[in-house]
From TrEMBL, chain A:
This is NADH-ubiquinone oxidoreductase chain 2. It comes from Equus caballus (Horse). Its main location: mitochondrion. It catalyses: a ubiquinone + NADH + 5 H(+)(in) = a ubiquinol + NAD(+) + 4 H(+)(out). The gene is ND2. Keywords: Electron transport, Membrane, Mitochondrion, Mitochondrion inner membrane, NAD, Respiratory chain, Translocase, Transmembrane, Transmembrane helix, Transport, Ubiquinone. Residues 290-342 form the NADH dehydrogenase subunit 2 C-terminal domain. GO terms for biological process: mitochondrial electron transport, NADH to ubiquinone. Core subunit of the mitochondrial membrane respiratory chain NADH dehydrogenase (Complex I) which catalyzes electron transfer from NADH through the respiratory chain, using ubiquinone as an electron acceptor. Essential for the catalytic activity and assembly of complex I. The chain crosses the membrane at residues 26-45, 57-76, 96-115, 151-171, 202-220, 241-261, 276-294, 322-345.
UniProtKB/TrEMBL annotation, chain B:
Its main location: mitochondrion. It is found in: Mitochondrion membrane. InterPro entries: ComplexI_Subunit6 (IPR050269), NADH_UbQ/plastoQ_OxRdtase_su6 (IPR001457), Nuo/plastoQ_OxRdtase_6_NuoJ (IPR042106). This is NADH-ubiquinone oxidoreductase chain 6. Keywords: Electron transport, Membrane, Mitochondrion, NAD, Respiratory chain, Translocase, Transmembrane, Transmembrane helix, Transport, Ubiquinone. The keyword Translocase applies. Belongs to the complex I subunit 6 family. Its EC number is 7.1.1.2. PANTHER family: NADH UBIQUINONE OXIDOREDUCTASE SUBUNIT ND6, NADH-UBIQUINONE OXIDOREDUCTASE CHAIN 6. GO terms for cellular component: mitochondrial membrane. The lineage of its organism: Eukaryota, Metazoa, Chordata, Craniata, Vertebrata. It comes from Equus caballus.
Length: 346, 175
């Protein structure tokens, strides 16, 4: 793609999310979502093969439907409250429709079917943008309307997302689909605590974005999209292998890595609100997630996977320079002792 | 009938939307779009917005739809699909018509009964009062406000349109 046009379109994606996050008028928020959607389509379609076109079409259809539902909820809100400012949504019908629309944009169950298919059909870098940056805008709106969200619907969607994200990722060998199901499960964790303490949603979003960025950059560094090609990294760059191990265990939520922090805080917040069975179920279903991360680490880092190379390390022709990888790795694994700093996030 | 003119026009509006949403060939979609544009203009005019209605006719129908018609005429096929040529298209059209008829009956026959919305009869659509704001007409003030208080909206929508052109060109460019 022409670099100037590519930069313009990328900046428009950023601008769309910024408009969503900064606006106080519901119509501007809708405009921001549409601008975001419109501009990310050519980024998803960077390579012109039928797979990317199909993935972009699926993404466009689901997100456009969600935008339409959002517009309907905005208009019902206007009808019943007579004003356009973002506060809480005053009508229960509008609140339910808006929650469903934002769940469609995020990829929560039962609207999760597009996430693995779209993530699989596009390149790794586009998948990175899709799973991290595109989650910011809907989550910011959910944060803003959180006082008026129907708890039953959101908690149902969250728990089902954690289940589907864990269960659906079990038989996958394609790395992008694994990351997609991991994204569904993490969105479930984030929205589960939204009504109780939205600050923890933002904390989880922050740590999730750091971990997903790290994982995707490690995949891009080793140019691997399947479990098989990832398991050859011990031969190519042994250091990456260790980093993949650490980051995957952090994504699985194991202490003493930073991925444990959001899960711990969320379970604590849920139990403070006298729900015991729910966080127990959520923690048990997170084990499914941990299982396929462990399987990935087993074939990648914990064993020397058989390869056709006879030497200890392959000849390095050229190394890709991935920006910001070391700080991201550090942040996605070592942040747990900083948990008391949560008090600044309010 | 004049009190219910907005309701009648809105029914024709929805029916023409169903007409092009059932996806005949783009030429026939454009034809129905002309009808829906004209009817939409009528609806706006009944609320006192004569400027906006004429804007619809001039810019939308007279500018954008003409260009659309020319480009579609260049790219059309030998036997374009009509509403009755394809079973699917006709089925969707009839389904849309049926839903609109049921909605109209629901609005007309049941007073003050709401499922998710309260349709209080046809009262919402009848024009009793055009909105008295004195000497100034409201919609001209609205357009003026768009360029003064709403400058940010103009910037954002202008940028969206520019990026829309870039995106469409980029997507259809191929390799």
């Amino acid at each position: 793609m022409n670099p100037l046009i590519f930069t313009t379109i990328l900046m428009t994606v950023l601008l769309g999310t910024m408009i969503v996050m900064m606006s106080s008028h519901w119509l501007m928020i809708w405009i921001g979502f549409e601008m975001n959607l419109l501009a990310i389509i050519p980024i998803l379609m960077k390579k012109y093969n039928p797979r990317t076109m199909e993935a972009s079409t699926k993404y466009f259809l689901t997100q456009a439907t969600a935008s339409m539902l959002l517009m309907m909820a905005i208009i019902i809100n206007l009808m019943h409250s007579g004003q356009w400012t973002i506060t809480k949504v005053f009508n229960p019908t509008a609140s339910i429709i808006m929650t469903s629309a934002l769940a469609m944009k995020l990829g929560l169950t039962p609207f999760h079917f597009w996430v693995p298919e779209v993530t699989q059909g596009i390149s790794l870098t586009s998948g990175l943008i899709l799973l991290t940056w595109q989650k910011l805008a809907p989550m910011s709106i959910l944060y803003q309307i959180s006082p008026s969200i129907n708890l039953n619907i959101l908690l149902t969607m969250a728990v089902l997302s954690i289940l589907v994200g864990g269960w659906g990722g079990l038989n996958q060998t394609q790395l992008r689909k694994i990351m997609a199901y991991s994204s569904i499960a993490h969105m479930g964790w984030m929205t589960a605590v939204l009504v109780y303490n939205p600050t923890l949603t933002m904390l989880n979003m922050l740590i999730y974005i750091m971990m997903t960025l790290t994982m995707f950059m490690l995949f891009i560094h080793s140019s691997s999209t399947t479990m098989l090609s990832l398991s050859h990294t011990w031969n190519k760059t042994p250091l990456t292998t260790t980093l993949i191990l650490i980051t995957l265990l952090s994504m699985g939520g194991l202490p003493p890595l930073s991925g444990f922090m959001p899960k711990w805080m969320i379970i604590q917040e849920l139990t403070k609100n006298s729900s015991i069975i729910l966080p127990t179920l959520m923690a048990i279903m997170a084990l499914l997630n941990l299982y396929f991360y462990m399987r990935l680490t087993y074939s990648t880092s914990l064993t020397m996977f058989p390869s056709t190379n006879n030497m200890k390390m392959k000849w390095q022709f050229e190394t890709k320079r991935i920006t910001l990888l070391p700080p991201l790795i550090v942040m996605s694994s070592l942040l747990l002792p900083l948990t008391p700093m949560l008090s600044i996030l309010d | 009938m004049m009190t219910y003119i907005v309701f009648i026009l809105s029914v024709i509006f929805v029916v023409s939307f169903v007409g092009f949403s059932s996806k005949p060939s783009p030429i026939y979609g454009g034809l129905v779009l002309i009808v829906s544009g004209g009817v939409g203009c009528g609806i706006i005019m009944n609320f006192g917005g004569s400027f906006l209605g004429l804007m619809v006719f001039l810019i939308y129908l007279g500018g954008m739809l003409v260009v659309f018609g020319y480009t579609t005429a260049m790219a059309t096929e030998q036997y374009p699909e009509v509403w009755v040529s394809n079973t699917t298209v006709m089925g969707v059209f009839l389904l849309g018509l049926l839903m609109e008829v049921m909605l109209v009956l629901y609005v007309l026959k049941s007073e003050e009964v709401g499922v998710a919305f309260k349709f209080s009869g046809v009262g919402d659509w009848a024009i009793y009062d055009t909105g008295d704001s004195g000497v100034f007409s409201e919609e001209i003030m609205g357009v003026a406000a768009l360029y003064s208080y709403g400058a940010w909206v103009v910037i954002v929508t202008g940028w969206s349109l520019l990026v829309g052109v870039l995106v469409v060109l980029e997507v259809t460019r191929g390799d």
